[in-house]
Design goal:
Blueprint lengths: L1 E5 L9 H14 L3 E5 L13 E5 L6 E6 L8 E5 L5 E4 L9 E4 L5 H21 L2 E7 L4 H9 L5 E5 L2 H8 L3 H13 L2 E4 L2 H13 L9 E3 L16 H18 L5 H8 L8 H9 L11 H6 L6 E6 L8 H14 L3 E6 L5 H13 L2 H10 L14 H18 L8 E5 L3 H7 L5 E4 L9 H8 L3 E4 L3 H14 L14 H18 L2 H19 L1 H13 L1
Parallel strand pairs: 1-2, 1-8, 2-5, 3-5, 6-7, 8-9, 9-10, 10-11, 12-13, 12-15, 13-14, 15-16
Antiparallel strand pairs: 3-4
Helix pairs in contact: 1-20, 2-3, 3-5, 7-15, 11-12, 11-14, 11-18, 13-14, 16-19, 17-19
Length: about 550
């Protein structure tokens, strides 16, 4: 059976990129032949891809540009349609070599040009391969493209819905709602990756009077590569040494942050008047998609035998990084030998560093003014960041007092690394004690949380959307050993994050080596039993064949 899977973006990074990457890898491992359509910058580097084909500017002819053997039983052919340098996205991000626009900002002409380019390419692919199943990802525009193909060819049509397209494009623009509806009417099966995503989609179907399609929905959760993310047998020093080795070459070649640039913002005398010019100066000084040039020296300076707490993901306001930063003084007051590693990339890094600066210096009143008035600290459409004003109003004095009571500067315990990839994280994540995922925007699935749990690392999550499902499973697992407060999205969010981190670290300190090992094993078993890609790929195959 030849399975055609479409994903109009990269195969590395976060979210749906990794979802598609891991699903295809597992299908090929099982011996299935997969045809993959994407825009990855360098697909020949992906371990499961046997052949790479690139289209000409008309998208009616393609050329084999790379071929290699892989250890997998199945064969994966990767095709790259030629988009002539224009890439529509759901949420704005930088893609090297492309002019990028959010779908909602695209003209109808731009949208249809994108559709025609991909449709021409897909016609060639379907013509030259015995395609029996087409599985598109996201609600627009590849489902619409497959819908047009379905008028010309016979195949089973499956859509995997990811939250970003639904929330940021389909719900915001009637043009794309119409494209989505046409696609949903043509689809054979609809896959969502969580109960939350299931509820969101059903609500949308109700709103557009397509309740009859609800019976086509199946929940297949996202998964984790349990063979890569596991409990380490090495000591922490060995893990960190391996991690350092994995980033040395990239850090040396990177155009990311330097020590001087980082210190310029973390240690600046910030005022309402200078904050915008300071951030603008910093942003012009580095490539935010690169790992920090001084990441090696910063990581080597960390006392890895302390408590290690980590965030990994995009530096976006939606990820709620500020909830962690406002919790740090309380955590350090109770557990002063704690390190915080903030890994990722994105535009919220500078506002996050300003928050660290203000908290470390006790300048809470300035921070209140900034989050109230400065667009740097606002979310979409100029809206205030969720929760932060309420937290500062209720806990601001306490946060400043806790920071002042420490006999060290909290900035010495917070390390921003810049972007890290999965091959690097497999050594770093198992060396952590706690992973915090504090999203303030609904998440389709908590991938990073289950990756952490697979390594025996304790996840602390906001109690909302898909995170709630994983949080409930963690609560059932700890079964009274750790007193968990729900991190609801209200003014107590940072306080409850601090409580949950402290409660786990205190319990960990009481455990013997054997008890801690057993606890880590129980976290991993939860993931293996429910979220391994082997089982998830098996569920997809049943859907394809059903």
């Amino acid at each position: 059976m030849a399975i055609l899977i479409t994903h109009g973006y990269l195969l590395t990074g976060t979210g749906s990129n990794l979802y598609v990457n891991n699903l295809v890898r597992e299908l090929v491992r099982k011996g299935e032949d997969v045809i993959l359509v994407c825009q990855d910058f360098d697909p020949k580097q992906i371990d499961f891809i046997n052949e790479v084909y690139e289209f000409d500017t008309t998208n009616t002819n393609y050329t084999l540009t790379n071929k290699k053997d892989t250890p997998f039983k199945g064969v994966c052919k990767c095709y790259k349609p030629n988009l002539n340098g224009f890439l529509p996205v759901y949420v704005y991000d930088h893609y090297q070599g492309f002019e990028v626009k959010e779908f909602t900002s695209c003209t109808t002409e731009e949208t249809m040009r994108y559709v025609d380019q991909n449709l021409n390419a897909m016609r060639c692919i379907v013509r030259d391969n015995k395609v029996e199943v087409i599985n598109t990802n996201h609600m627009v525009m590849f489902p619409y493209i497959a819908t047009q193909l379905k008028k010309e060819a016979k195949f089973k049509f499956v859509i995997t819905v990811h939250g970003s397209a639904l929330n940021f494009t389909v719900k915001k623009d009637k043009r794309f709602e119409a494209y989505a509806i046409e696609s949903l009417l043509a689809v054979d099966e609809i896959v969502v990756d969580s109960l939350h995503a299931d509820e969101e989609l059903k609500e949308f179907l109700h709103d557009v009077k397509l309740e009859r399609l609800i019976e086509k929905i199946e929940i297949i959760p996202a998964g984790v590569d349990v063979s890569s993310f596991g409990i380490a047998s090495q000591k922490r020093e060995e893990l960190m040494s391996a991690f350092v080795q994995s980033i040395e070459a990239g850090a040396k070649e990177s155009e990311g942050r330097t020590t001087e640039t980082t210190q310029k913002i973390l240690n600046a005398s910030v005022t309402e008047a200078n904050v915008n010019s300071l951030v603008d100066e910093i942003r012009k000084a580095y490539d935010y998609r690169g790992i920090d040039k001084d990441a090696v020296s910063k990581v080597k300076a960390i006392d890895v035998n302390g408590n290690n707490v980590m965030f990994v993901g995009k530096y976006l306001w939606t990820k709620g990084i500020y909830l962690i930063l406002l919790a740090i003084p309380k955590i350090l007051k109770e557990k002063p030998n704690t390190n915080f590693i903030i890994a990722g990339f994105g535009p919220f890094r500078e506002p996050a560093e300003i928050i660290v600066n203000c908290v470390a210096t006790g300048n809470i009143e300035l921070l209140k003014k900034l989050v109230a008035t400065n667009p740097l600290f606002h979310g979409d459409e100029g809206k205030h960041l969720p929760l932060i004003q309420d937290i500062l109003n209720k806990y601001g004095a306490e946060i400043a007092q806790d920071a002042k009571a420490l006999n060290f500067d909290i900035r010495s315990r917070v390390t921003f690394t810049g972007i890290l990839n999965h091959k690097q994280l497999v050594n770093l994540l198992p060396a952590m004690d706690v992973l915090i995922a504090p999203s303030v925007f609904p998440e389709a699935f908590g991938m990073v949380a289950i990756e952490a749990a697979s390594c025996g690392v304790y996840p602390v999550l906001t109690y909302q959307s898909a995170f709630r499902e994983i949080g409930d499973q963690i609560r059932d697992l700890v079964d009274g050993r750790v007193k968990i407060n729900n991190v609801d999205l209200n003014e107590n969010a940072s306080a409850n994050i601090a409580h949950n981190v402290i409660a786990y670290l205190q319990e960990k300190d009481k455990m013997s080596a054997t008890q801690l090992s057993e606890f880590k094993d129980s976290l991993r078993k939860l993931v293996v039993d429910n979220y391994s890609w082997e089982g998830i790929a098996g569920k997809y195959l049943k859907t394809y064949l059903g």
